[in-house]
Specification:
Largest sheet: 8 strands, mixed
Strand content: 25-35%
Number of domains: 3
CATH topology of the largest domain: Beta-lactamase
Number of helices: 21
Helix content: 25-40%
């Protein structure tokens, strides 16, 4: 009986154990179903979030080079420097003191950012700030200096006496508390500082979100950087991979790895050597005459290529934020003013082209006082009867007005627009304005006498130099050309740009007559630009001195001075425009701008190996080898341009 009772107790216990085991197995089974089936997507996503990483790989931004291959803008490898405050402990001040000078940051601000902080995330978990960005776009050299400085960090503790766990903390502090983001960055660098700044432009950072990932991308903000941003920036790649518990990549589990396509290199028409010449000469002129601003444009007339473009004051594209907006504005294309007497080339060439006048026709310039429509028009000199050529030579306002009257309003207006005024030139730079040319129905009775001398209309310096280049180019107006070609990273040409003719404005015969007249501006005794003459080259050009217009009319003592010339006059290689806004110590274009033209032209001719077109002969004391009979020593042989 006792055995039966013992067995019954054992059986009951076994049943209880069995029931408990079944319940445990059911619970375990339910848990497995819950984890593997019901919550599979959620838990899989959380697991992937802990180990799986997706990165966008930034392409290298293309370079900008000049026409001779000199580097103007490039991108250097850079890193984003970060901190893990949880590894810094009580030493943020010491770390900030060590790295702030190297990163060129404020030490107090860095110290505040290194302090550990906690927050509640979106799922209610308490987390520590383990990723704090200290500075972006840090060069590799600077990052190496930061690493070296952190490795030598002194905290005032004898670590040799500490326990192993405490020593691990200090090792982590030195090695991992300050780190670089694994996604590589790039720093845009302009190695020549301010050279060609208004053409190159500059870049900035633009924040955008792609597939839930916030990115700071480098984008062009001005100049070529902006206009050709799509070509320069390239195409992103991406990488999907896994990390271990120590945040190291498990390369074997890399699922996707698509390399980025680097941006194209842009080769501009600028010649860096010529650009340097222009900027140096213009800076000397600015120091001498102290204008509000000054600009120079150098154009190759037969192609429209812009070989140099400078406006002062300028800025350093490496640090555009340090410059005022006026310094960053490209005044060559964004500022307009009445051109003054340089505009006389439009009225005179139009009248010659229409055969309304001949170059030898004579006009009475009224000794400097001409009354038309009840208003008096003054000349800068006491001119009497002048030929059309002499009107250009001596820059007679009255002579230009009378040429305009004979030409007539409709034709004058048509030629003004045909020369490209009131229309953007199409140069690939942002901010270009079209200028002002009033429609005929807004002209008053005086307009036909004022417009030919460069009043009642406004244009950019670029529009004016392109109009002069059209005369130098046999009457063909060219579109300004600033980009020569696009190349891939191996130097293969992807896109080649060609010169574009806009229209034939005047005939070639008329252009030749204008060139002959424009030569006298420099060579004639009464020419307004004798200071623009070159020793070995014939120069053709025109001065301009326009009183500045203000809200209440023309402002006394404030002038916009200019000179535009080209050489060699009969086969022009370069057309150079020099303009100054309110120069001091002189304001006539032939006085302040013509010498700048000469300085640029002399150096440019040597730099570009332009062949002379003038024979100079010196008288020698005797006849000998290399000497002509009569003692004449030829110092230059006459050569024609190729």
């Amino acid at each position: 009986m006792r055995n039966i009772m013992v067995k019954a107790v054992v059986y009951r216990r076994l049943c209880v154990v069995a029931i408990l085991l079944v319940l445990a197995l059911c619970a375990l089974g339910y848990r497995l179903v819950d984890l593997q089936v019901l919550r599979h997507d959620e838990l899989s996503a959380r697991a992937n979030a802990n180990t799986r990483r997706a990165y966008l790989l930034e392409p290298r931004r293309g370079e900008i080079r000049d026409i001779r291959g000199q580097l103007l803008a490039t991108s250097l490898p850079a890193r984003t420097i970060c901190a893990d405050p949880s590894l810094i402990g009580r030493f943020p001040a010491e770390v900030a003191r060590t790295i702030a000078p190297l990163l060129q940051l404020n030490e107090a601000e860095v110290c505040q950012r290194l302090l550990p902080r906690t927050r509640t995330n979106e799922v209610g978990q308490l987390v520590t700030n383990r990723y704090v960005v200290l500075k972006r776009k840090v060069t590799l050299d600077t990052w190496q200096q930061v690493q070296s400085a952190m490795a030598r960090l002194k905290v005032g503790v004898d670590e040799s006496r500490l326990a192993k766990r405490d020593r691990v903390f200090y090792r982590q502090l030195r090695q991992n508390a300050i780190f670089a983001d694994q996604v590589e960055d790039q720093l845009r660098v302009y190695p020549n500082q301010k050279l060609g700044a208004h053409v190159l432009g500059y870049v900035g950072l633009h924040e955008r979100e792609i597939n839930g990932q916030r990115l700071l991308e480098t984008v062009g903000m001005d100049g070529i950087e902006l206009m050709l941003n799509a070509q320069l920036e390239g195409v992103r790649g991406w990488r999907v991979t896994e990390k271990d518990s120590r945040n190291r990549e498990l390369v074997a589990f890399r699922e996707q790895d698509v390399e980025p396509a680097d941006g194209l290199n842009v080769v501009v028409s600028l010649d860096a050597g010529l650009q340097h010449i222009v900027e140096t000469e213009l800076a000397e002129a600015v120091a001498k005459f102290s204008p509000i601003s000054a600009s120079v444009v150098v154009v190759r007339p037969r192609t429209g290529e812009i070989l140099a473009l400078c406006t002062l004051p300028n800025f350093d594209p490496n640090a555009p934020g340090l410059a005022a907006p006026d310094q960053r504005r490209n005044r060559v294309i964004a500022d307009i003013a009445e051109p003054g007497s340089t505009f006389k080339i439009v009225a005179v060439s139009a009248a010659l082209n229409e055969q309304t006048v001949r170059i030898s026709d004579r006009f009475d310039c009224e000794h400097g006082k001409f009354v038309y429509a009840g208003r008096l028009l003054h000349d800068s000199g006491n001119h009497g009867v002048l030929t059309v050529e002499e009107i250009i030579t001596e820059s007679s306002n009255i002579g230009a007005a009378k040429v305009g009257i004979r030409l007539g309003e409709p034709l004058l207006h048509r030629y003004i627009r045909s020369f490209g005024f009131s229309t953007r030139t199409g140069i690939p730079l942002p901010g270009e304005v079209s200028g002002i040319v009033h429609p005929l129905d807004r002209w008053n009775k005086l307009s036909i006498t004022r417009v030919p001398m460069g009043h009642e209309t406004a244009c950019t310096p670029l529009q004016m130099v392109m109009a002069m280049s059209a005369i130098a180019n046999g009457g063909v107006l060219m579109r300004p050309m600033l980009v020569d070609r696009l190349e891939d990273k191996d130097g293969n040409v992807v896109v080649k740009y060609q010169p574009q003719a806009v229209r034939q404005v005047i005939s070639e015969a008329t252009a030749r007559q204008m060139v002959a007249a424009l030569k006298t501006v420099i060579t004639a005794k009464k020419g307004t630009a004798t200071k623009a003459g070159l020793e070995h080259y014939t120069v053709a050009g025109k001065t301009g001195t326009a009183q500045k217009a203000g809200p209440g009319g023309y402002m006394p003592g404030k002038y916009f001075s200019s000179f535009i010339g080209f050489f060699p006059a009969d086969r022009p290689e370069l057309c150079i425009s020099v303009v100054m806004d309110e120069p001091k110590g002189g304001y006539f274009g032939g006085q302040v701008c013509a010498p700048v033209f000469r300085g640029i032209a002399e150096h440019a001719a040597n730099h570009m190996d332009i062949r002379p077109d003038i024979i100079r002969e010196e008288t020698g004391p005797e006849t000998g080898p290399g000497r002509e009979p009569g003692g004449l020593v030829p110092t230059l042989a006459r050569r024609s341009n190729p």
